[in-house]
Design goal:
This protein starts with 5 loop residues before the first helix and ends in a 5-residue tail after the last helix. About 75% of the residues lie in helices and about 0% in strands. Helix 3 packs across helix 11, helix 11 crosses helix 16 and helix 12 packs parallel to helix 13. The relative contact order is 0.17. The protein has about 400 residues and is mainly α. It is globular and about 65 Å long. It has 16 helices and no strands.
Length: about 400
């Protein structure tokens, strides 16, 4: 018999067991996300029916939103923005050229495959699947066989592109769901900029600046307990999110901006201060992936169509790889490096949260859009999860051969 606390008991036990063997599993071909998603699928309604998550439940939405809020904050704080100062560096190309082209190409493919979608819905789908997920590409960005500069560049790209996509998604959603009717696009976007983006930027910036100034003030007077230091980043991220949402702004933009400001001000102690926030984000991410496997994956499988599957395949290949090739044109990268960068653009957590947000907006084809996103994410989890280790090894061997004295 189902009990309201059974889901949390099962998740807590799973997290505890996983924390004991995570190091061993990290040396296999299985990514974290494959394990989490599979556990949710096996224990959910599609399997043994232990978990009772529902795709439209408020708890799932809350967990997903808080997960993205924390990850946006920590990713932005950890991003080495100095790599963007040189305009020829890879992150600038991928964010400034590759990301817009990915959205444009995804928009074109969705128009072709789903003619019933409005242009706003096609754009929303393209934006939802544009951000890459650093966690899904963990085997790539942490493996020393991949050159340091390439790992750093891919990490910066995945850390920033979801924050860039947030205002774009809200802008198109505002046009698609204009509840006042008769408002011009200009008025809608002006309101969006002032409320969503403006408040988000203001809250994120002011909270991080004031918060860190207060920390410095209290440190000089020895008022701070050391064991409470790691909690500060978690509280600051959630304060940015909750306050911005309450004032009518975007909590995600507030977390993204707040994280960048936090990272720019705090340098030497950044890793120590962000450790607890990253761990909390990882735990919430695990819960989100398990819930996704339990509630969303069975729904996606039962509503699979050739159009949905084709969009997912194209989204992970042509829609990502062609913009990457165009973005890096003129850079001194060989073909294997271009293919490697193009392939490792996994879709994950940000797209899940975007799907939850879009479902809540009641678009005409909102559920179909969410299904397409879910199918693409499932394909990405499997394809990038199983291919990460072998392809990193192959690329590492190739890179070593290219740098050997015989090839100089």
């Amino acid at each position: 018999m189902f009990h309201p606390y059974s889901d949390w008991a099962i998740l807590a036990i799973f997290i505890f067991i996983y924390s004991l063997i995570a190091g061993r599993l990290s040396r296999t071909w299985l990514s974290d996300e494959i394990i989490f998603l599979s556990f949710g699928l096996i224990t959910g309604p599609f399997g043994f029916k232990f978990l009772q998550f529902e795709v439209t439940s408020e708890s799932l939405k809350t967990i997903a939103e808080l997960t993205l809020a924390l990850i946006l904050f920590t990713d932005a704080a950890n991003a080495n923005l100095s790599v963007l100062k040189n305009s020829v560096r890879l992150p600038w190309r991928l964010l400034g050229v590759g990301l817009p082209l990915t959205i444009a190409l995804g928009f074109g493919v969705s128009i072709l495959l789903f003619p019933d979608f409005s242009w706003q819905e096609a754009a929303i789908l393209a934006i939802m699947l544009a951000p890459t997920d650093a966690a899904l590409g963990k085997a790539v960005v942490t493996n020393p066989k991949v050159p340091d500069n390439l790992r750093e560049d891919l990490n910066v790209e995945s850390g920033l592109n979801d924050g860039i996509c947030v205002p774009l998604l809200f802008a198109i959603l505002a046009i698609a769901t204009d509840k006042n009717g008769g408002n011009s696009t200009f008025n809608l976007l002006s309101t969006l900029f002032v409320q969503q983006i403006g408040i988000g930027v203001l809250v994120g910036t002011s909270f991080s600046v004031i918060g860190l100034q207060l920390r410095q003030f209290c440190r000089k007077r020895n008022w701070i307990a050391q064991d409470w230091q790691p909690i500060m980043a978690i509280a600051l991220a959630l304060a940015c999110y909750g306050t911005s949402q309450y004032w009518g702004g975007s909590g995600f933009i507030a977390c993204f901006v707040g994280g960048m400001v936090f990272g720019a001000i705090v340098k030497e102690e950044k890793e120590e201060l962000l450790m607890a926030a990253e761990a909390t984000g990882d735990a919430l991410s695990l819960i989100t992936w398990v819930a996704f496997g339990s509630a969303v994956t069975p729904l996606a499988i039962t509503q699979l169509s050739w159009q949905n599957l084709l969009y997912g395949v194209l989204g992970l290949t042509l829609v990502r790889m062609l913009p990457v090739f165009i973005a890096v044109f003129g850079m001194k990268l060989d073909l294997s490096s271009k293919l490697f960068i193009g392939w490792f653009g996994p879709r994950g957590l940000a797209s899940i949260v975007f799907a939850v947000i879009v479902l809540d907006e009641k678009l005409a084809h909102g559920q179909e859009i969410a299904i397409i996103v879910a199918i693409t994410i499932i394909l990405s989890v499997l394809a990038h999860g199983f291919s990460a280790t072998p392809l990193v090894n192959l690329y590492g061997q190739h890179n070593a051969q290219m740098q050997s004295p015989d090839n100089q």
